[in-house]
Write a structure and sequence with these properties.
The protein is mainly α. The chain is built from four helices and no strands. Helix 1 packs across helix 3. The longest helix is centred in the first third of the chain and has 17 residues. The two termini are 20 Å apart.
């Protein structure tokens, strides 16, 4: 995967964990990636992580492995919220959720409506 795809994947997983109320779990947690293979697309990798989220939520957190994370540039608080029709990918939706442009209910509804979850 390209660095851009990895960033979209990381942001999307963080958004899904936040929407599910999962805290204290890093996106590099091996429990999220049970069933993942290296040749998967971003969409397939999101599906694997999404399926594993429930079991991660029910299990106590394992010690996270230290991996350097990419710095995410800060957003501007005065930027207008993106209309729901402008989301082109689950990554765009996750970024809007992270930036508090939409709430978890809206995130879940839009992701399901568009067939991304």
């Amino acid at each position: 995967m390209s660095p851009e795809e990895l960033n979209v994947l990381r942001t999307s997983i963080e958004g899904m964990m936040s929407a599910a109320g999962i805290t204290g779990v890093d996106v590099s947690d091996s429990r999220l990636w049970t069933g993942y293979s290296q040749n998967m697309s971003v969409t397939d990798a999101l599906g694997v992580a999404s399926r594993n989220l429930q079991s991660v939520k029910q299990q106590p957190a394992a010690p996270a492995q230290s991996t350097p994370s990419q710095a995410v540039p800060p957003s501007t608080a005065s930027a207008p919220a993106t209309p729901a029709d402008d989301f082109q990918s689950l990554g765009d939706l996750a970024i809007a959720f992270r930036d508090k442009q939409i709430d978890s209910t809206t995130y879940s509804r839009l992701a399901r409506d568009k067939g991304w979850l």
